[in-house]
Design brief:
- The complex is a heterodimer of chains A (461) and B (83).
- Chain A has 461 residues and is of the alpha/beta class.
- Chain A has helices at residues 12-22, 70-78, 82-85, 109-119, 124-136, 148-156, 159-171, 182-195, 204-217, 260-267, 352-357, 362-384, 399-406, 441-457, and strands spanning 2-8, 28-31, 43-46, 49-52, 87-89, 92-97, 101-105, 198-200, 221-223, 228-233, 238-243, 248-256, 280-288, 300-306, 320-328, 342-350, 393-397, 430-432.
- In chain A, the strands form four sheets. In chain A, strands 1, 2, 9, 10, 11, 12 and 18 form a seven-stranded mixed beta sheet that branches. A seven-stranded mixed beta sheet of chain A has the order 7-6-14-15-16-13-17.
- In chain A, helix 5 runs antiparallel to helix 6 and helix 7 packs across helix 8.
- The two termini of chain A are 19 Å apart.
- The model of chain A has no long low-confidence stretch (mean pLDDT 96).
- Chain B has 83 residues and is mainly alpha-helical.
- Chain B is built from four helices and no strands.
- The mean pLDDT of chain B is 91.
- Classes of the chains: A alpha/beta (461), B mainly alpha (83).
- The interface between A and B is medium-sized, with 14 and 15 residues.
Chain lengths: 461, 83
């Protein structure tokens, strides 16, 4: 079989790339290893209902009139109507450093500005200057690493506020330890604080189906359970892929969304990329009955917390680090339709290596999963109020779960710390999009797929 | 295709990209991108739609020829002579 464009990986970047291309040229084949598309943002069925895997909130909320906002550009590029998404904005989220300080934010940026002016008056002028930098900075220009932490600290002159600003941005998109690249910081600051968060009224499955329906209507082809075992070609040009089934598919152009290192493994050659530590996470979903009360955080959508003296965002020396994390209440978005359950989701940094050590001992691994959930519970209850007595179901993902279902090395959801912004990995006809290209989040990863197709493939075919 | 028909074609494609595009004050000798608030991603849609609808292959180095409505018409007139 031959196809002009072959895309490896049916996550959101691969789906968006495929849809963008199929709008103009229907001859595109999307390969997904699993039985379902979505990658990190997929779903599964347990306890007779659907669970979302990755979705907490979608960042980059924008009003319809903001034509050049990432969300609206993306919808135009994919020819998807805004109303198809059924957008529900967040209520209010919070950065809480326990026993120290708290900052509220919402999709109205003035709330966040007022909070900073009230609680960190000495840093407010510096914060305004930092905002100017964030507005003017071009994060897409290839640049070598600039420490965001140093730039923020220089402007704010306050360690606590610096950590509080970094905490949500790191948890929602940093692949490196204890710092961020300035460009990445600017992208994330705009996405979370200046733009904001929303979710669809339905589930991630509905969103994936919208994308798939449009894609198939244009004539695009999808194969699930199609695992690529080798990319065929020479040092400069790829010819196609070999599937696990033994079938070969040839192509003129190829787009990979599975990660840079993961792609070079399929090419059978070294990537030459610097090997830096990768960050893994543990997430637990606590299911509660509908309308369950969370006494201390009724309207909060997401709480980013830290309870240690200093905020550390690094691989822990234990299975997981409950000193900081994210607590998400997916029902707390505005005007959502009534649901038959309430959820609390907690996310913490985890050690891939220590989880991996348990892999061959299912009893210890399962016990460790149980303990991970139980150790996360007291801190969640401290912040939300007691809810343990109401838990009707619970599930935990570890870095191994994520690695198994997404193929991401070490289960690192934000991928390789080294990003390849222009998608060029040294081949004439093979390009990289998705997590390792550097755009993150659902809107970001989709824009990644779209922009790499626009830049490298559409003009040439 | 006549010059007017080509003009209509371009406007129709733009309207398809952005249904709120305002053509009333559009000046045909000024850059489309500035006047209609199109970015480079939107601009590529014009090229790709021309390809899809009229099998026109516009090489990347010719993209600047599509900057204004007038230059679009001048550039496309010979290419769409038989369309």
């Amino acid at each position: 079989m031959h196809t002009p464009l072959l895309i490896i990986g049916g996550g959101l970047s691969g789906l968006a790339a495929a849809l963008r291309f199929a709008r103009f040229i229907p001859d595109v084949l999307l390969l997904e290893r699993h039985s379902r598309v979505g990658g990190l943002n997929s779903y599964y069925y347990r306890n007779s209902r659907l669970f979302e895997t990755g979705l907490h909130a979608i960042t980059n909320y924008a009003d319809p009139k903001e034509k050049n906002a990432p969300l609206n550009r993306l919808l135009r590029q994919l020819k998807i109507k805004r109303r198809e998404l059924d957008i529900h904005q967040q209520n209010q989220s919070e950065i809480r450093f326990l026993d120290r300080q708290s900052l509220l934010f919402s999709n109205d940026f003035s709330l966040f500005e007022n909070e900073i002016s009230d609680k960190f008056p000495g840093s407010f002028d510096g914060f305004q200057k930092l905002l100017l930098l964030i507005t003017d900075y071009d994060p897409f220009k290839p640049e070598s690493f600039i420490s965001a932490r140093q730039v923020i600290q220089h402007h704010l002159q306050d360690d606590l506020l610096t950590d509080m600003l970094l905490c949500p941005l790191m948890y929602y998109g940093s692949s490196i330890e204890n710092d961020m690249d300035l460009g990445q910081f600017v992208i994330m600051f705009r996405a979370i604080f200046l733009e904001g968060m929303f979710r669809p009224g339905g589930t991630i499955k509905d969103l994936l189906e919208i994308l798939l329906t449009h894609y198939k209507n244009y004539g695009g082809k999808l194969r699930t359970k199609a695992s690529v075992v080798k990319i065929l070609g020479d040092d400069k040009k790829v010819q196609g892929v070999l599937l696990e089934s033994g079938e070969e598919i040839s192509c003129d152009y190829m787009l990979t969304t599975i990660g840079s290192e993961e792609t070079f493994t399929l090419l059978g050659k070294p990537s030459g990329l610097k090997k830096l530590p990768r960050l893994g996470f543990v997430e637990t979903i606590f299911e509660l009955p509908p309308q369950a009360e969370l006494a201390r955080a009724r309207d909060r959508t997401i709480i980013f917390y830290n309870k240690a003296k200093t905020f550390s965002y690094q691989r822990p020396c234990e299975l997981l680090d409950i000193n900081s994390g994210v607590i998400c209440m997916p029902q707390n978005f505005q005007n959502l339709p009534p649901s038959s359950f309430t959820e609390v989701r907690t996310t913490h940094l985890a050690s891939y290596r220590l989880w991996k050590n348990l892999k061959n001992d299912p009893d210890s691994y399962n016990r460790a999963k149980e303990n991970a959930a139980l150790s996360s519970l007291p801190v969640a209850e401290k912040i939300l109020g007691n809810f343990a007595q109401n838990i009707v179901y619970r599930d935990t993902f570890t870095p191994l779960t994520i690695e198994r279902f997404t193929g991401k090395n070490n289960g690192a959801i934000y991928g390789n710390p080294v990003k390849i912004k222009d998608g060029n990995i040294g081949f004439d006809n093979l390009f990289l999009a998705g997590t390792d290209q550097g755009f993150l989040g659902i809107v970001g990863s989709m824009l990644s797929g779209v922009s790499i197709v626009n830049q490298h493939i559409l003009p040439r075919l | 295709m006549t010059r007017d028909a080509i003009k209509d074609l371009i406007l129709e494609i733009i309207e398809d990209i952005d249904e709120d595009a305002d053509f009333d004050s559009l000046q045909s000798d000024k850059p489309l991108r500035d006047q209609l608030d199109l970015d480079s991603m939107d601009f590529l849609d014009i090229v790709m739609e021309l390809r899809k609808r009229h099998k026109l292959q516009i090489p990347e180095e010719d993209y600047p020829e599509l900057a204004t409505l007038d230059s679009c018409v001048n550039y496309l007139e010979p290419l769409l002579a038989d369309a």
